[in-house]
Amino acid sequence: MEKKSLKKSLRPTMTKFGKWLVLVLLAFILIWPLSAGLYWTVYKGYTLIDPTRFPQLDQNIADMLQETTPDAYQAKKGAALSASIRNRLAQEMNSPFGWSVNDLIISPTSWLDNRANRQRGTIFATRMLANFFSTNLAKYGNVDAENKDLKKARETYFAFTADSWWFPSTESQYKKGIALLKKYEADLLKGDAKAIFNMRTDDMYNLLKFIISNQFLDQPLGLLVQSNDEVPYSELDDRIYYTQGVILVLRDVLQTFVHLYPEIKEKGGKENINIAFRAMNQICTFDPLIVLRGSHDSITADHRGKMARYLISIRERINDLAQSIRR
Fold it and tell me: Which of 50, 265, 266, 279 has the fewest Cβ atoms within 10 angstroms?
């Protein structure tokens, strides 16, 4: 009996602290994948209501391009190009949660910062392209006056702040801007003398050069290539989705532009534009579950750097396309 007690006393025993430590480790091992799985399930459920990936050209643009062939008359081409500029902004306004940039903090949608930053990129690109269209393509020469509807849309309504909740609301201003573009398009199609569209070869070149300029694509590119140690972790996803918003607008416009003027491809730009569109599709479908900031030889992904590489590819291919027009 004494031998059995001696053997029992010699067995290693676990302290109370050790037991708790094991339980905590087991809980961590079990809870972490369960939490990740729950987050993934909730997020995927959310994306069924409010899409976060846009692999295909918007159906409105696809239908419009089917109706507007390259041999269409100039006014119809102008109306189509104008519609492609306003399309993405209208899609954001009519999305399941609407324009969320200006939602009050008491609203659950105010926490959806990815879509809010995508919308900020959308209005930036809409402003830039509407400005170029109005001041370069909607008149015969540089000294001609702008179309009054386009001028008011770009200077008053699209220039309005993105985060005004009331008096007036951002939504009301942007909708007025969209309505003025639609009015211009209707006037253009019915032959109104005050509605002009004039696309020359040098305008094609200038549009492409404007897209890759420091006024347009260089702006989101600067947000992506800034050094990691200069960017707070909380801003990484903001910059990624802002860029996505810019490219969603650009994809609509560039697809329309290339479709209406196939001579751009015929001058040696076919492969360049195809590669540019592939990179655009990569950006429009870029939606990591968690945005990481791996740097140098880190084993974690650098999502901002990956987005920058796509954007640089787009920029270089559009530049090559512009040069092929010049030749």
Answer: 266
